[in-house]
Amino acid sequence: MNPIGWLLGRKVRLSPEQGRRLDAWRSLDEPDLGSSQQPRRYVAVDVESSGLDVHRDRLIAIGAVAIMDSRIVYADSFYSVLRQDKASSDDNIIVHGIGGSEQTAGIDPCEVLLAFLEYVGKAPLVGYHSPFDEVMIAKATRRYLGERCHRSWIDLAWLAPAIEQGRAKMLKSLDQWMDVFGIVNISRHNAFADALATAQLFQVLQHRAMAQGMRSTAALIEAAASQRFLESQRY
Predict the structure, then answer these.
(1) Which domain does 223 fall in, by range?
(2) Within a domain: residue 187?
C-alpha cells in the first residue's frame, strides 16, 4: 500500500443518495465534551480484521452498542460484516469465527460504513486499545466513502489504570479487567460481544470516575492520555 496515497485518499463514487446520507452525517452537531451534562450517549466499538497490521490488513466486521445515561441500551446496537473480495486466512478465521463464505457474502462496505456513521452520529466512541479500531475504521471510511472519520475516543486500556491506580500494575488485558469486575464475555473475539464487554467495563469506570470528580468526556479522555504518558516515561 502506498502510504502517501492512503493519506491523501482516493476519489470515490457515491450514489446521490449515499452522498446525501454522508452530508447529513457531516452536518450533525458535535457534542460539548467539556460539559458534565453532555454527551448522554456513548458508543462502545470493536472490530474484527484480517490481521493485526493496520497498513495491510482489512476491516471485516464492526460491532457496537450504545451507553445512554450510564446504561447499556441493547436495542441501540450495531453489527455488520463487510463484504470481502477474498476471505482471510484460515488461521485468522479461527480467531474471529467469521467464515470465508460469510465474508464474501457480506454487505457492501460502503453501505456498512455509511450505516455505521449514521448509527454513531457524533457520539464519542469507547474502545479497549482503541487506536487499532480507530485506524481500521478510518482507513475503511477513507477508502470507501472518501471521508476522514475523526472521532473522539476513550481508550479503556488507559482509563482503567488511571481510575484504578491500585490495580494498574497487576491488570493489563481486557480479560483481566473483566474478571476483576465480574464481566462475562459471551463470545470472545466476536466484534459485538467484545463491544458489549467494553461497554460494561465503561459503565463501571464511568461510575468510579464520577466519584473521583471526573464528570465530563474531556476529563475521561485527559485521564486516559495522562496515564498513557506516565506509562511511556517508565521505560
Answers:
(1) 38-232
(2) yes
Task: Return the exposure string of 79-100: e unless at least 16 CB atoms fall within 10 Å of the residue's CB, then b.
Answer: ebbbbbeebbeeebbeebebee
| Residues in contact with 225: Cβ distance below 8 Å, sequence separation at least 6, in sequence order | 158
- Whether 119 and 23 have beta carbons less than 8 Å apart is answered as no
- What the block records as the C-alpha cell of 171 is 491488570
Instruction: Determine, yes or no, domain membership for 16.
Output: no
pLDDT tens-place string over residues 36-54: 887 799 999 999 999 999 9
The CATH number assigned to the domain holding 161 equals: 3.30.420.10
Determine how many CB atoms are found less than 10 A away from the CB of residue 136: 21
The full DSSP string for 84-131 is -SS---HHHHHHH---HHHHHTSB-HHHHHHHHHHHHTT--EEESSHH
User: Over the stretch 159-191, which tens digit does the pLDDT of each residue have?
Assistant: 999 999 888 778 889 999 999 999 999 888 899
Strand partners, 154: 126
pTM: 0.92
Into how many domains does the chain fold? 1
